[in-house]
Design goal:
By secondary structure, the chain is of the alpha+beta class. The strands form two sheets. It has a six-stranded antiparallel β-sheet. Strands 2-6 form a two-stranded antiparallel ribbon. A hairpin with a 6-residue loop joins β3 and β4. The radius of gyration is 16 Å and the shape is globular.
Length: 151
């Protein structure tokens, strides 16, 4: 399975287009001529961008939920709110819709950061705040998370 690598500072223009750095664009090309899916993050005010194959695998799990349970229907509705497909245009840009820009509080200065099989799109100030706030507790978090996944 392929994973994205890197953190990049970018700019978003007034039309919601982000010029993707060449090294990230190359990584995106490694997934073929497929579209990507952009959605709201579950836990943070940022966007998540999935290669379509990874998105389809995730949706298989979600489609297996019993839709006759209200909590499942509510989860699916919110999880898929604002989901869009995107592709690199001929100028190497991705287009972010206005509703997703508003959700993630994106301004002109953007950070794109790898998160395994997906990458995240952040407003630069928000990203720096989250990273700074997490630094002090990261060692304990890493110990807890990685211990849970031993096997």
């Amino acid at each position: 399975m392929k994973n994205f690598i890197g953190t990049y500072e970018c700019k978003m223009d007034d039309k919601g287009r982000i010029k993707v750095p060449a090294s990230l664009a190359k990584q995106m090309e490694d997934f073929g001529d497929e579209a990507f899916v952009v959605k709201r993050s579950v836990f943070q005010k940022c966007l998540e961008v999935y290669p379509i194959k990874h998105w389809d695998r995730l949706m298989e799990k979600i489609n297996g939920l019993n839709r006759f349970q209200k909590k499942n229907v509510d989860f699916i509705r919110v999880f898929t709110a604002g989901v869009k497909t995107i592709e690199l245009d001929n100028a190497g840009r991705i287009q972010i819709s206005k509703d997703l820009i508003q959700y993630a509080l994106l301004e002109k200065e953007i950070v794109i950061t790898s998160a395994g099989e997906l990458f995240e799109v952040w407003d630069k100030d928000s990203y720096e705040t989250v990273i700074a706030d997490s630094e002090d507790s990261f060692a304990q978090l890493a110990e807890e998370v990685m211990k849970e996944n031993e096997g």
